[in-house]
Every structure is written in structure tokens, then in C-alpha cells.
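In response to a reviewer's request, we include the raw inputs and outputs for one of the modeled complexes. The two entities were modeled together in a single run.
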Amino acid sequence: MADITVELPDGTTRTMPPGSTVADLAGAIGPRLRKDALVGAIGGHLVDLAAPLGDGDQVRIVTAASAEGREVIRHSTAHVLAQAVTRLWPGAHYAIGPAVENGFYYDFELPGGERFTDADLERIEAEMRAIMAEDQPFTRSEHSVEEGLRIFADQPFKVEIITSVSHGADDDEDLGEVEAGPTVSAYTNSPAFRDLCRGPHVPSTGRLGHFRLMRVAGAYWRGDENRPQLQRIYGTAWESAAALDAYLTQLAEAEKRDHRRLVTDLDLLSFPSELGGGLAVWHPRGAIIRKEMEDYSRARHLAGGYEFVVTPHLTNQRLYETSGHLSFYKDGMYPPMELDNGTYYMKPMNCPMHCLIYRSRARSYRELPLRLFELGTVYRYERAGTLHGLMRIRGFTQDDAHIYCREDQLQDEIASLLEFVMSVLRAFGFTEFTANLSTKDPKKYVGSDEIWEKATDALTQALEKFGLPYEIKKGDAAFYGPKIDIDVRDAIGRTWQLSTIQCDFNHPERFDLEYVGSDNARHRPIMLHRALFGSIERFFGVLLEHYAGNLPTWLSPEQVRVLSVRDDHDAYAETVAATLRDRGVRVGVDLASEPLGGRVRTAKMAKIPYVLVVGDDDVAARTVGVNARGRAAAVRGVPLDDFVADVVREIGSHGAPEDE
RNA sequence: GCCUGGGUAGCUCAGUCGGUAGAGCAGCGCAUUCGUAAUGCGCAGGUCAAGGGUUCGAAUCCCUUCCCAGGCUCCA
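The model returned the following C-alpha cells for the whole complex.
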């Protein structure tokens, strides 16, 4: 047999003896690579190290510390999880077990309807470590469909997968397990355990080990709430102990900055159970932050050519019949109130009401674009299990605007909108943005193809203009028009979807909105929906987590706290506070009733940007001792007037003590 | 809505086999007068989420409801 020549990623070629595998190739390149190699990629398709090479193949060796490598590790760890569970619970059925972001899961059905508890995780983890210590090889085998059905005869979920794939189903979930085709593949890592799987896997279980089982959860088979609910075990797995530690540290960090903890610790707001789930009351400190956010938003909107409107929280159902929402979204609305003059609903959105304002009189083309803005509070009956602090809540306030414009204005309007959105988000400390562009679902849409194309173009060009990285989500648009969603990246690298810009060809039609053009004829305007924060509550939560509670000075409820060293400095402390207050600074005073150290600590724990300490020297020289948040040492003897000027400047520029 | 786990003082949590509830922090009072992350002592604080059941006796066992956490599903 002739030698095999393969091409490596750098373009060089290498000739190998016939029958060589990916592992042989890695070994030929270097012993270190042979050791680090986890799987290979032939023509971009991941394969086991044991896979044979073919002449002319383009081959790449994949090591553990790569996205592909981690995915393989996670997938292989999931197999070991299933193996451990079948050892501990003989007769357990295992369903699917893919790699996911940061880890993996596996779904099980235990004999006799038994459930996992948190305590079981420890046992399972120990069993997994034993399997890894046994260093079992993962061996691939291929079978006909009939054979596959026989092998997995006692695994009903596997049988269902094999059956559906062999019938040509193209369910993504199934394809994670097996590839469509006349054969199915399986991996055996001990005589006692075999799993249906497309692979590839690490060469042996000994290559795994930097993992941790995280939690038990219920999950519907096939993600369908009408089908049985399985027991899902989630885990995380990494290529090294260091990577695992880094991940666990990041989780701990995220937990520390959980907004639900911070709102309590900082006394910002609460969710009294008397109100029912998903409804918050804002305490004074939280309300100050919120007011600052709203004031800033209003000021920017005013400057941006928006007109403010106000609409009621309650409406007759006729409105939602006109808008068409009722038939679609009734489930998400609070139930109707039947009154003698009709049926009323809490409003779940502001758009239809803004349309009524537009329609309240004849509109001229000269008025367009007409930008209506409202901090509109809406109520949506989110299902109980979906509520999550401020992030998913039942009563919330949208910074909602609807822009009515002519077709020839669409392009410019969208471009300036995008700029406006990013500019406002930057003022809140976000610097990294990405976007998603959702395009037409060909099966479900209203409006002409022409207008869809025009609007999609306008959105695309705006994204290009600002160099915003974006992904196209084909068919993801609402039926009424294409949209851009903007994600921000926070201080610890998580992304949050905040803003949205949506084209709407439906409302203008349903509300019969018109304007009189320069040609004296009636035309239909285009409507844009856009929210910048999305919801104030959610944005507030995101901000808290982004800053870990250390809000920039302009947003801090208490910007400065003045502490006197002894009570004969109390009067001067009050003078300092009054001076700051006169300049619009929010300032508190903590007089000398308990030791200074304790008062400093209290102020620090409240994350107050500036703690001022005043004693003998300061009274004499009209100075303050400045202890800035995030700074190791205090600065003594700062002239009061200098401090006032600095802090006023910082507030105006949306700065924080940490910036200096 | 579904699965699992929870709900004990304002917060964080302990409470053994079913025998009427405990700590730290916070709060209040008194003392302390102190130069940068916890001054001391004392006091008060509870329908053990709510309702029902079992029991001589329930924070503890059972049922229902509400709320919370993590998932699933959903998210106009």
C-alpha cells in the first residue's frame, strides 16, 4: 500500500505509512503534541485520535486547551457521569448528555421513579473519579440501525433517538448523539457501559478529571413540557485544575455581585411576599439611583428630539383587539377585570397607546419623524418559575419610545438611533457592545417583501456604519418586522441583552395610521419600537452586578459621608456636609458616638464613594481627610473647597473614585 | 406551569429522637471621645411563611396554599 500524504494547518504536508491514525500523526509531529493531543480534525470534522488518516486529508490536531478540546472533555465527562449513574443505580435509563457552555449535563430516568438529591452528587462524583482512575479507553463502534436498536433495547430514550434519526428526522438534539445515516455509532469504555454517540471522545477516561458536579434539575425529555420530566445533572469540566479553579472563582465572584444580595445589603429595594412574586418596592436609597437613571434618560431623550407622553396602566380590551395582541399574548397578561362597561386589562406594553396619540389628529409629513417617549410601567404575568430578582419581574417600567417616520427617513433614523443607544449606554459605563440582527421568518410575517428588505438593509447598514459586531438570526424576527438587539458585556465578561430596535409594519396598518405627504396624498408611516434600558428594573440589576454595587458617584445614593473624630468636631462635620449639600452633593454625617474605625467600616460596607474624616487639623485649616472608595490609604489635609470642586466635577462627568 | 431543594428575629444562620426557640450582625438604651474596615455593657426583637391534620405534646411528621433558589418550558 502506498504512503498517505496529509496536509497540516500551516500548509505543509506530511507523509505517513499506510494505516496511520491521527495519533500517529501527532506523534510524528512531536512527542509533546502526541501527549497533549485529545482529538483530531479531518477536513474540519472532529474525529478520535484512533481515526485512520486518508490520503489528501487536511488534518489538525486538537489539544485540551481549546474551545473544541474543552467541548470534547465535557462530552466525555458526561459519558463518565452516565456510566457512574448506571453503576450506582442499575437499570437507570440515560437519555442525552451533551457539552454545554462551561460544562455538560446528562438526563436520566431512575428505576422506580427515584430522584437524585443534592447528597447523591457527592457519591456520583466519587464513582466518576474511580472510573477516571481506571483509565478506560473510549472505543468507537458502528452498527446498523437494527443492531443499534438491539444493543440499546433496554434504553428507551436511545431507542427513540435511533428510531427518529433513522426516519430522517433532523432534530439538532438527536444529531448531537448520532449522525443521520444508515449506521449509528456507539462508544464503549468498559464492557459494562456503552453509549450511543457520534463522538469524538478523549482516548481514555484517564484524560479527564478536572470537573465538578454542580446541581440536580428537572428537564423535560426533548424540551417538551408535555413529555416526561427527567432528572438532569449539571457539571462543569475543564482541561486543567487551574482552569476549573478560575471558573469556580468566577462563579463565586458572580455570586458576590448578585443584585438580589446587593439590593438587600445596600437597602435599595425589596420583594415583600405580601405583594406576590415579581413585584418590588423601592426603598429611599434605591429610589435615588432610579431617579438619577430616569433623570438622565429624560435629559438625553429631550436633547435627542423626543416628545414625552403619559398613558394609563389600564385599558379596555378593545385596544388590544385593535392591536391584535389579545389573541397572541393573552397568557402573558394579568387576567381581565370584568366591569359593567367592558373588560379591562393591565397594560403589558405601551405601543398601542402611543399609536392612539399619533392618530389623535391628522399628521403632516413635516412632523415626521415623530418620536414619542414614555417611562411606561407595564405588567406581565410571567410564569412563577421564571421570575428572577429584577431581571425577570412582573411589574416593570420600560424606557419605551415609538418613532413614526417616512420610508425615506428610515435609514437615517435607524442610524442615529443606534448611535443614541450606544452613547447612552456608554454613559452608564458599558463599553463593549455586540448585536443580533433578526430577519424575516418566511412562514410568518406581515408587510411587503420590499419593505422588509428595505428595513433589514437599513438595520444592517446602521450596524456596519458603527462597526458593531453582529450575528444574523435568520427567521428570528417578530412577525411585524426585523429588529436589532444590543448586548453589552459587563465587568466580569457576561453579556446582557439590553436594548432593542424593532421595525413594525403591523401597528400602523392595524391602527390605520397615516400622514399627509407633500403630494397631498395619504401615506402610511413606518413605526420603530425601541427601548434602551429595556426595563429600568432590569437595567438597574445589570448595573449593580456590573459595578458589584460600587456605583459611580453620580448614581450613588449617598455620595459622601462625613465622620467627626471627636464630638467637638461635630459642628465642623455639619459645616462640611452643608457645604457639599449646597453644591447638590448627597451627603450623610456620622457623628462621634462610637469609635472612628467602626464608623469607617460601616461607611465602606455601604460602598459610599467618599468617606471624609475631620479632626483637629481639619477644623483649624478648613480641610478634610479623604478616604476614597477602592483606595488603600486616606489622604489627609485636603482643602475643603478643592474636595467639593473635585467631587462636583466627578459627578458631572459620571466618574467614580476608582477612575482617578 | 413542571422537577429538585428551601422558608426559624430586619440580615446571615444553628436548633439532636416530636417535649413551648438560640447565636452573630443590625436596632434601641447607657457608658465610651477615639485620626481611617468591628468600643463595652445592657435591652428589646419570633403566630418557627400561612392554613389544616396526626399526637398528651409539632419549628420538627403529613396535606394544601403562598413565597424563595437552581434548572426545564416560556419571554410579545
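As requested, we also summarize the result in words. Chain A is about 35% helix and 25% strand. Chain A has a mean pLDDT of 89.
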